[in-house]
């Protein structure tokens, strides 16, 4: 069954989540449910398998976090497995669950690469109520102990469309094979694709409800966009002009690690509290930079598409696409790093003569954007 309805509930009380969690939402200063939360939470609480398609910044994480913790409170012997494709995204999910667990204490375990595997093994053997994992590292642990997922009755797959792109099909199949009994599967994605359907076939034990918000596969309405046509040699000067007077956090997306480093070095020449992050840096270095950006110690963050998905930093007011991505869907996720949870934000996209082909592929995400053409340098 495919549902598409953007009516939002007046408050979280109407959604019948655990009353204990309402205090956590108050501390998080979250007052009103989003459309995906209004529609999705009741379906999860009713036991439905679910495929939810919603735009970035729509509140997908809280949709399943609130519902699952409500169910875990009622069914004290059950457990949940929550998977996302990257370490950074799993760590982001862990932050949300940590805030909720202040009100409703439950044991949890973070299972990702780049951290002490023996410590994770020890935690997993204690049967934590909530496991937050990347498929690769979870599968590694299951190779030596196939009983680690006993009594898991809730499985969440976030950013489902990326799982196959990152080569996780074998790991997902192995994880599924170790599970026993019945479980409820929840899948969340920004787009409906053959990859999502493939992952659904691996984990779904019955027909799912398919939920789409009216704004799925489109930027949120609170996002203001600007497209600047310029030459490659104009990018650095224009970048500084765009961010120098901006208040709040700024994320600049470069096309690859080399470009990321060049932009980072350029910004280091100015008094902007900037830093850079890409996949070639150590996990400890990446964690530090993200933490300092979240805390406001770093105001301008240069990155690759490593952080296009999953990063939720409320004070990000501006996203700059210094280079266009290889995958047009990554563009939608990039600009979704601002204007989240009903807040306003701006996205600026640089387009050079060499970007014509990709521009056509992302044009559907640029409807209504203000266009500026810079005069060529003389």
Report on this model:
- The structure is a single chain.
- The protein has helices at 19-27, 35-45, 60-74, 87-101, 117-125, 135-144, 160-165, 169-178, 194-203, 235-243, 257-267, 283-294, 328-335, 356-362; strands at residues 2-3, 50-53, 79-83, 108-111, 130-133, 152-158, 184-189, 209-212, 223-229, 249-253, 274-277, 300-303, 316-321, 345-351, 370-373.
- The N and C termini lie far apart (60 Å).
- Helix 3 crosses helix 4 and helix 6 packs across helix 8 (169-178).
- It has 14 helices and 15 strands.
- The radius of gyration is 21 Å and the shape is globular.
N-to-C span: 60 Å
Quaternary structure:
single chain
Low-confidence parts? none
Largest sheet: 8 strands, parallel
- Secondary structure: number of strands: 15
Q: What is the percent of helical residues?
A: 25-40%
CATH fold title of the largest domain: Rossmann fold
CATH top-level class of the largest domain: Alpha Beta
What is the string of SSEs from the N terminus onward?
EHHEHEHEHEHEHHEHEEHEHEHEEHEHE
Q: Provide the CATH architecture of the largest domain.
A: 3-Layer(aba) Sandwich
| Class inferred from helices and paired strands | alpha/beta
**Overall mean pLDDT:** 90
Shape: globular
């Amino acid at each position: 069954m495919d549902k598409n309805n953007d009516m939002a509930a007046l408050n979280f009380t109407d959604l019948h989540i655990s009353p204990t969690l309402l205090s956590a939402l108050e501390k998080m200063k979250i007052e009103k449910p989003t459309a995906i939360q209004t529609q999705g939470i009741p379906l999860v609480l009713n036991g439905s398998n679910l495929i939810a398609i919603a735009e970035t910044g729509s509140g997908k994480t809280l949709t399943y976090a609130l519902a699952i913790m409500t169910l875990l409170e009622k069914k004290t012997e059950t457990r949940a497995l929550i998977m996302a494709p990257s370490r950074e995204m799993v760590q982001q999910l862990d932050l949300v669950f940590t805030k909720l667990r202040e009100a409703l204490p439950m044991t949890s375990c973070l299972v990702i690469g780049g951290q002490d595997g023996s410590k994770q093994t020890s935690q997993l053997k204690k049967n934590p109520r909530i496991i937050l994992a990347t498929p690769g590292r979870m599968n590694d642990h299951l190779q030596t102990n196939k009983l680690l997922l006993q009594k898991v009755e809730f499985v969440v797959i976030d950013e489902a469309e990326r799982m196959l792109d990152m080569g996780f099909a074998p790991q997902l199949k192995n994880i599924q094979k170790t599970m026993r009994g019945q479980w409820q599967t929840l899948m969340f994605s920004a787009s409906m694709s053959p990859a999502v359907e493939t992952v659904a076939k691996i984990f779904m034990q019955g027909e799912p409800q398919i939920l789409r918000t009216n704004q799925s596969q489109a930027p949120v309405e609170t996002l203001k966009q600007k497209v600047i046509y310029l030459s490659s040699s104009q990018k650095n000067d224009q970048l500084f002009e765009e961010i120098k007077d901006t208040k709040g956090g700024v994320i600049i997306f470069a096309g690859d690690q080399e470009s990321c480093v060049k932009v980072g070095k350029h910004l280091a020449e100015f008094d902007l509290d900037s830093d850079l992050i890409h996949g070639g840096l150590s996990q400890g270095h990446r964690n530090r930079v993200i933490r300092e950006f979240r805390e406001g110690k770093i105001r301008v963050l240069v990155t690759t598409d490593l952080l296009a998905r999953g990063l939720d930093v409320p004070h990000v007011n501006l996203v700059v696409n210094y280079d266009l991505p290889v995958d047009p869907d990554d563009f939608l996720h990039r600009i979704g790093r601002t204007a989240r949870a009903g807040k306003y934000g701006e996205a600026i996209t640089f387009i050079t003569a060499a970007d014509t082909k990709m521009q056509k592929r992302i044009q559907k995400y640029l409807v209504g954007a203000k266009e500026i053409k810079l005069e060529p340098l003389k």
